[in-house]
Amino acid sequence: MKRVLFVDHVDRVLGGAELNIVELLTRSSLPHDWRVACACPDTSPLHCSLTAGGVECLDYRIPSALSEARFVDRSFPLKRFFQWPAAMREARWQLHTLIGQFKPDVLITCTNKDHFVAGAACRLVKLPHVWWVNDALTSDFFSWPTRMAFRWHAREADRLVAVSDYCRDALIRLGVAGEKAVTIHNGIPPLTIDTGRSGTLREFFSIPTNELLFGSAGRFTPWKGQELFLELARRWVADGKPGHFILIGRAFNEEQWFEENLKQFVTKHKLEERVHFASFQSNLPAVLMEFDAFLHTSLSPEPFGRVLLEAMIARVPVIAAHAGGVPEIIQDGENGLLAKPGEVQDYYRQLARLAGSERDRQTLAAAGREKALRHFTLNRVGQQFDKLLNGLVS
Q1: Which of 158, 153, 96 is nearest to 129 (CA)?
Q2: How far apart are CA 251 and CA 255, in angstroms?
Q3: Which residue from 155, 198, 228, 361 has the least number of CB within 10 angstroms?
């Protein structure tokens, strides 16, 4: 039996990259002739989710000098720069030991730090190495030194799997050889939520069933555009239009200030009765079904847009920013609506269209669900990875 080892050092959150791993492995989307395991911290949400799904895990954690350095930023963590060589050596030796224990035929790393760590470890034993790239390596998100480090280390990878053509194009512009970079769009499970609306948020916030409900979900961070969402809500309410707005999510530790700013905006403009905040929802698909429209307001190009698929499968019409990997999911006017990134008035125009036509909402919602179920399945992801990995192993 062939063996593949996934590597992800993230120890505090279950982000998009980690959700991709969980769904791919726990749902047996890879063919059964692959034995799979994941190297991750044994205290992480990823470890808990994988072991609950019967997936083998190996304890792996990188030194704090690496784990606490933030790369997804235009700045460069220079203060920790001189600590990295020793930290990298320690992480590489630990991973080298795990490779010796599991004896994989191929290794897949899932974050930028893991890509860098695993290169030398794989080279020592001539192990094929695949980078699962969940980020857009552009100046919107990464500093020039970080992008150059990525380009340098990418020479050691056998393949780089991008989650969208937009991300693949960014890799090629960075200098990655085109034959190394491939696109495998993310997939999500066919959520079984056809039992009707749950009423969870409407009941909690006392929103009548005949009131339109517009929402967004995700991490609170400036580039995700929650400020634009609130400005849209302010203008909507000021114009006397009906409906409520809900933001689902929270800020991570270093960006608590941003969440406070959002709540202060609502208070300043006296929007408390029409704009609501909700924490991350364990039953997000059922909650999304309550929305009459889902608003994706990212200011920077989204690498992919997983939450769009979740909304589409939940039969919610989507209005999203026309940038990044989003147009690979949504075709404007066919299975959703697109708006110019950062343009509040364009979002207003599209929202007014949906709010004024139940027929448009139903038509776009049905087309969105059909597109998500047809093109973005986990079986398709598993088949594409199987073909890629077999090519490397053989």
Answers
A1: 158
A2: 6
A3: 155
How large is the angle between the packed helices 84-102 and 112-125, nearest 10 degrees? 60
Q: How far, in Å, are 91, 222, 248, 292 from residue 251 at the CA level? A: 29, 10, 11, 25
The answer to whether 356 touches 161, Cβ cutoff 8 Å, is no
Helix, strand, or coil here: 186?
coil
CA dihedral 320, 325, 328, 333 (to 10 degrees): 20
DSSP 68-84: T---SSSS--GGGGGGH
Q: What is the CA radius of gyration of the chain?
A: 22
Task: Give yes or no for a contact between 385 and 36, defined as CB atoms under 8 angstroms apart.
Answer: no
Q: Is the CB of residue 233 less than 8 Å from the CB of residue 348?
A: no
Structure token digits, residue 301: 């190009």
Of the candidates 179, 1, 23, the residue with the CA atom closest to the CA atom of residue 105: 1
Q: What residue ranges define each of the domains in the chain, with the CATH number in brackets? A: 2-187+377-393 (3.40.50.2000), 200-375 (3.40.50.2000)
> CA 175, 303, 167 angle in degrees (round to 5)?
25
pLDDT average, residue stretch 130-150: 93
In 103-244, where does DSSP find H-type helix?
112-125, 144-153, 165-174, 200-204, 226-238
263 close to 279: Cβ distance less than 8 angstroms? no
Confidence of residue 146 (pLDDT cuts 50, 70, 90): confident
DSSP for 36-74, written as a single string? EEEEE-TTSHHHHHHHHTT-EEEE----HHHHT---SSS
**pLDDT tier at 195 (50, 70, 90 boundaries)?**
very low
Does the pTM surpass 0.70? The reply is yes
Identity of the residue numbered 319: I
| Both structure tokens of 376 | 């973005």
Backbone angles phi, psi at 42, to 5 degrees: -75, 0
